[in-house]
Amino acid sequence: MKVVLNSLVPFKGFKAMFLFGILFVRNDLKHGLEEKDYNHEAIHGRQCLEMLGVFFYLWYVLEWLVRIPFYRFNVRKAYRNVSFEREAYGNERNKEYLSTRKMWSWIRYI
Predict the structure, then answer these.
(1) Contact between 30 and 56 (Cβ < 8 Å)
(2) In what order do the strands lie in the sheet with 16-19?
(3) Please, where are the H alpha helices in the chain?
(4) Which of 48, 50, 79, 105 is the most core-located residue (most Cβ within 10 A)?
(5) Peptide linkage before 69 cis (omega within 30 of 0)
(6) What is the mean pLDDT of residues 60-69?
(7) 36 lies in which domain range?
(8) Which stretches are transmembrane (predicted)?
(9) pTM
C-alpha cells in the first residue's frame, strides 16, 4: 500500500485515510502510524478491493448518511457505526486478522 504524508487529507481529527489504494497520513504525526492504525486502514483496503472501489465508497457514504438520524445527528457516532468502520475498529489490534478474514466479513457488522 502506497503511503502519502500530507496536511490536507485526512481531515483534522483523523490520523489516516485510505482512498483508492493510497494511504494518506497526516504529516504532523511525529512518529508515524501505530501498527493498529496501519492495520485498520489495511482492512479498509481489503473491503475496497472486494467491492471494486467505487461501490465501497458509494456504500460507505450511503450507510453513513442513513445512520446519521439514528444517532441524533451525531456524525461522529454515525461514522463509528458504519459497518466498514465497525469491522476495522473491532479487528485493528489483531495482527492475523487479514490472513484469516473471510470475504465480505463486513456484512456481519451491518
Answers:
(1) no
(2) 2-6, 22-26, 16-19
(3) 35-50, 54-70, 75-80, 83-91, 97-100
(4) 48
(5) no
(6) 98
(7) 2-109
(8) 51-70
(9) 0.92
